[in-house]
Amino acid sequence: MLKYKNISLSTVLVSCLTFMSSSFAVLINEFQPNPAGGDPDNQIIELIGEANTSQSGYFIQVDADGTQSGRIDDLISFTANFNAEGLYTFEVPDLENPSATYLLVDQFEEALSFDFDIDNDGFLDDLSVFNTVYDAVTIVDSPSDQGFASMVGGINLQFIGSEPTHVFRDSVSMEWIQVNSSSNLFDRNANAIEASAFNLPIEVSFESTNPTIQTAEAPIGSTLYLMSCFILSFLLLQHIGRNITSK
User: Fold this and answer.
1) Distance (Å, rounded) from C-alpha 57 to C-alpha 200?
2) Domain range holding 32?
3) 119 or 203, which is more confident?
């Protein structure tokens, strides 16, 4: 079986399809990776899901800085009761500053001391610790840091020159927007965006609908991810076919 580190292609494919089937069940919608000013005692995480429903799971922050890579910084259980707008917020202790990967999963039975990347090579050692990954996003404070979000179907946000103070999803496209300490805006690929492109002022707006770029269309990230899943499926079928032919 083809391996990616010690992770088989079939395992990655299963993770991909699991994420895809649940990718709109519940998502991280807005938070402040490193808010301006002094570190607060607590921070707010906003989730978005189906209006007037409930969903439970775990919010996990995984370090992506050097020798700390793969270690859990925060492990918080939640039960989200989504309001009529499909939003839910909860408090967590002050987050460790990026670089980090932020995960939403349905179950997690490992201890807080668990290390996802024992050899610190920037790759997850084992995907089997996850059942369903609802969402994942990586935020970095250096272009050399790597995160794990893309390995479980999420998004690795590109470095914008500093740690973002605020990140949120465009309310229409669901694409991530990054905001730095000077209120400059960037997309997931670190391309600059003018504030005038949005329909609302850019500010921390928990429990309110996020701004959207006024020309925003259907979620691009989900389309690209669907395409990648088809490619992985094709590669896996080719691999199986070659094994059958060689027998």
Assistant:
1) 31
2) 24-217
3) 203
